[in-house]
Amino acid sequence: MPDVSLWTLVFLVVAAFSAGWIDAVVGGGGLLQLPAMLLGLPNASPAQILSTNKISSLCGTATSAVTFGVKVRPDRRTVLPLAVLAGLGSAAGALVATKIPMSWFKPIVLVLLVGVAIYTAMKPSLGARTALRFDGRNHYLAASGVGVLIGFYDGAVGPGTGSFLIFALVGFLGYNFLQASAKAKIANVATNLGAIVIFALHGAPLWQLGLIMGAANMLGGLLGARTAVARGSRFVRVIFLVVVSALILRLAYDVFLG
């Protein structure tokens, strides 16, 4: 573990717990955790921070995925291709992460998030109930496509992955927000695993710190998943809009003022 002060460790653990809660409900926990790691570990390399962030996030997403799986019981025939291809896409994204300038992605992601926020805000009924837009084979192909594209994005860049997964499952496939959150968490486990494998092959992760933060992220994820299940789709929709708005502000700062 890197040489960090007790206060820095406490700061990172609190950030990991908060990120786990947000990530379990609507995704986007990296909005808190990744900047916190950049502040707390100024001497770490980008690969170390990204990979350690993935380890911590994996612990939380795995916990919330199990909770959602038990409480919501998502359709396995949809989740399996979504998760497997998301994991493969994430591994491919991690392979090219060091070769593609981050400056290319941020303006594109900003525009996409603004569109997501406007579309969701203008359609109050969006995600209130499940009304699938595809049948049979077309449905599974659509889920697979979502998995590959967003998985690749997660491996290469990362911020807002959970939110993009939920929006795609709600806006494109037609799930309600609660069902979408459950499926997104399972897919997010796969994307984290895919990226970690690639980063680990290059010796990047700070394993001890990642596992300590992961324990806090796990507790936050457990609490967040239980909160989402108890409060339902309307609550998840509100938190989704709050997190997407925060992501927009963060990316706008990076693009225009960073």
From TrEMBL:
Q: Which domain of life is it from?
A: Bacteria
Gene Ontology terms: cellular component: plasma membrane
Localization in the cell? Cell membrane
Alphabetical list of InterPro entries matching this protein: TM_pro_TauE-like, TSUP
Q: What is its main location?
A: membrane
Mode of membrane association: Multi-pass membrane protein
Transmembrane annotation, as ranges: 6-32, 79-98, 104-122, 134-153, 159-178, 235-253
The record's keywords, sorted A to Z, are:
Cell membrane, Membrane, Transmembrane, Transmembrane helix, Transport
Describe the family membership recorded for this protein in Swiss-Prot or TrEMBL: Belongs to the 4-toluene sulfonate uptake permease (TSUP) (TC 2.A.102) family.
- Name it: Probable membrane transporter protein
Native source species:
Kribbella capetownensis
